[in-house]
Amino acid sequence: MNNILRIDMKNLSGIWEGVPEAYQLLGGRALTSRLVSEEVKPSCDALGPENKLVIAPGLLGGTTVTCSGRLSIGAKSPLTGGIKESNAGGTTAIQLAQSGIRALVLEGQAANNELYLLVIDGNEVTFKSAEDYKGMGNYPLAARLRQEYGEKAALITIGSAGELGLPTACIANVDMEGRPSRVNGRGGLGAVMGSKGVKAIIVKNADKQTLKGVDEEKFKESSKKIATAIMENPITKVYSDYGTSSLVDVANNLGCLPTKNFSAGNFDQAEKINGEALKSLILERGGKGKTSHACMPGCIIKCSNIVPDQKGEEIVAPLEYETIGLMGSNCGIGSIDKIAELNYIANDIGIDTIEAGAAIGVAMEAGVISWGDADAVIKTLKGINDGNVLGRLLAFGAVMTGKVLGVSRVPAVKGQSIPAYDPRSLKGLGVTYSISPMGADHTAGTTLRAPVDHSKPEGQVVASKNAQINVTVFDMLGLCMFTMATLINHKELIGDTVSSFTGKNVTFEDLQGISRQTLLREIDFNVNAGIIQNDLPGFFRTESLSPKSTVFDVPQEAMEEIYLELKEGN
Amino acid sequence: MNNILRIDMKNLSGIWEGVPEAYQLLGGRALTSRLVSEEVKPSCDALGPENKLVIAPGLLGGTTVTCSGRLSIGAKSPLTGGIKESNAGGTTAIQLAQSGIRALVLEGQAANNELYLLVIDGNEVTFKSAEDYKGMGNYPLAARLRQEYGEKAALITIGSAGELGLPTACIANVDMEGRPSRVNGRGGLGAVMGSKGVKAIIVKNADKQTLKGVDEEKFKESSKKIATAIMENPITKVYSDYGTSSLVDVANNLGCLPTKNFSAGNFDQAEKINGEALKSLILERGGKGKTSHACMPGCIIKCSNIVPDQKGEEIVAPLEYETIGLMGSNCGIGSIDKIAELNYIANDIGIDTIEAGAAIGVAMEAGVISWGDADAVIKTLKGINDGNVLGRLLAFGAVMTGKVLGVSRVPAVKGQSIPAYDPRSLKGLGVTYSISPMGADHTAGTTLRAPVDHSKPEGQVVASKNAQINVTVFDMLGLCMFTMATLINHKELIGDTVSSFTGKNVTFEDLQGISRQTLLREIDFNVNAGIIQNDLPGFFRTESLSPKSTVFDVPQEAMEEIYLELKEGN
User: Fold this and answer.
1) Mean pLDDT of the A48-72 span
2) Which of A80, A98, B460, B481 could link B427 by a cystine bridge, Cβ 3.0 to 4.6 Å?
3) In this complex, do A406 and B164 lie within 8 Å of one another by their Cβ atoms?
4) pLDDT of residue A208
5) More reliable by pLDDT, B378 or A298
6) How far lies B503's CA from each of B472, B496, B500, in Å?
7) Residue A561: which H helix or E strand, with range?
8) ipTM of this complex prediction, to 2 decimal places
């Protein structure tokens, strides 16, 4: 009941291996990055047989701890060329953990470009031809698989983009109602899954039991304390009421809301797409709309939502801040309906909304689509399946789009586009974008709640370093980032929780040590893969950002000291 | 009168340096590759300030030796990522040589993306703003520069593609009537010139004198013998009568005429675009048309032509076999008029017709343009300047086009597309495509006239190796490839010619030694740049080619033995 399941796609076989002692405390990102760094050659072709796709619940996945069902997926990224971990909610991690799977490793490549469904039912692994599902979008695919394998089955799927090997392809997981909308979005991991010849992984639910701690009572108690602490934090209510869309106003006021390809930090149509607007729209339209919704069993924050159309039918669920920022303001699009529709299309084809939104912004700067022309974007994205040339180009991401269209202002680091916080007015996150082995990624260590003046360079390096180390702890435990605002102040409780679950004596500082080692391994992988960009694109340092007239001015040398400090264990 | 002229584009200065003793016997490709391999970091950004563009006449350039005016240009290629030399006719090499310039080296990068004209007048080097010429095509640019600098000035120019940094951008040289149509086509060297901030190099003609040999009389005598030998060879008359277009029938009969993205080896409309058809069209239309025409002073082969339209006005000059094969049969286009128009457009924008033709074939296979739809191609290529997305993509070459459009059958090696000879039915050239440090390139060592059965694997490795070594000798001397069919049987005469010109005692075998060293340096550069593909794309080994039912079946290990043999001096 504590295994690594290795799937050999060349020979269509599965092998269950016990988790080695050295991996016993690893979960989520710590485990995916450990396996990738130990088993994948940094110089290999990300879409070739030598790459491996590692899928791992967090260490606390499948337990009673609230919000512990995040799923990490790692591999060498076809987008960045470096190591990648991308993290999602949904029901998958819990079911994998409760099936005794600490990591699922897809290896090799199916012969003759065949495409398969991988079905895991207890100890049994079967490979079924996915010929009938070829080219299918995530939504119809999930609906059909649920008919065939039951509504309780966890599904990990790719859309057409993953099959096509497009480097913005994501991996979808179903939520509690079966929507394939909990997405490991970043770094093109869907293309890696497609390159293996896997269209969907189905984890059948056979009355699985919640995992118990080795010290059962103490673990229960810790678990309850965690829930109480989270519920008592006022930020939790903001997430429940507005979801991440509350960040539209926060970012717009800070002057870091990406607007028209990161040429401004606030958007004149922000109030049409902010948290209030979204909440009002949902409440007014009613129907299937919901302002609050949980993406995984046991979540008490419920930051998700369901966006209804004018008839009350669901457009998409959830609509998140990142998508609003990148597909909305960054493209000059000030309509929730249009952004929600774009989100649905991207989910269905299976591409990352952040990367796609950034690429569209670049294409708009090139003049091939007009700012704010949502209908042209909808048509273009829908055309990806039909070989629409611009659509295909966008699906290669912002860097490739900029290269081909001759746009030099491309908001990306290590080949991956910058999420919905302009680093000139949120400088600590700019440090993370620059330094993180993940490329530009807000989930790699946001400083939004750090006690610093976000517009000044002072204190940002330390804030970023701490955020990077701490978020990696949460990622390895499978805890949602949104528990961090609360639990970072309950370090002992986290140590107690892990100790009582594993039966080992573990402190939060021990977990931070694993986090540092994880970061160092990832950095090392990238260096060996030749990925050496550790700074923002030049225009962030030279173009002043309205309305706060900020430029990014944290010195590169100061940022790179993070690497030295990690090595020294600081 | 024997110098390397180094141009520092950052500081806008020129420095004349004597040619070091070790370089005294080097010219053309031997000199460009020597300088690039010694002075350019293999891992550098090909379009960054660390790359250098080296322009070198052959060792015999500027002398009375016929057909010795070929110009080599070398750099790290933005298309292949490896070292590149590309070679052209025209008037430039002769003028550079007669100005005492053995190599012109463009270094650094102009500040603030400024664009300059580089004017060389005797010992004087001046930099003039090219602001007024920005975005200009090669034809209007050359016409205007000739007005300003005189009709005798040699011009080396780039079109808009070079300014835009497109990796198919070529460099144009004027012919004797001032057409900018003698092209260093391959490997995107025009983008390197553009990245330096140079729109045009103007070498003013101030009554330059033909270079004399150290042993003047003996050199004159050798020079005459060379001319006589070439004139006496019957192949010379074929080149004069039909130009390279005579190769359409040769290739069609051999079954190696690239047809519809290398899916067949003969073309059902070949007789509409072959040498006879072209000759008839020119003779019937008259006007400015010419069936034979010299690209450089002193050429006695005159393989060039001028293609007139129905009114007798010039469409393009010359129209070469490679362009007919790639932009014609490879795209299913069976019209000389359309191919000539495409050639003119490509020349004007300044992109390589081979790479563009291969990329169009790939786009046609993807279905985004119909086979044979010349008007759609014309529109697309013209749109490169206006940000036409497909046009921009095509201008990144066949590999990028295939990648973005999802076409796996891409005829390219080391990122550079295969010229107009399908390697399945001309296997020796397939060895050259695979092994040459230049990537797929017919000028790197063709075996078309080698005494082997082109459809069989036997003897191809030796034929290719010899061709690669020998053509590098001709490239270093500045001799046109078309003298090789004759002069390869007069090795002693070549030795005598070089000896009497330089005053050193040099044999043909000595020159072959320099050629081997050049190849080894180039191979080494590529390995250090991470360019390691030494084989054809897989489909050439698996898909049988009609009409001869051939596959490429020279074993890779046998091909790679060339590297060992070069190292051993064989």
Assistant:
1) 97
2) B460
3) yes
4) 79
5) B378
6) 22, 10, 5
7) helix A556-567
8) 0.90
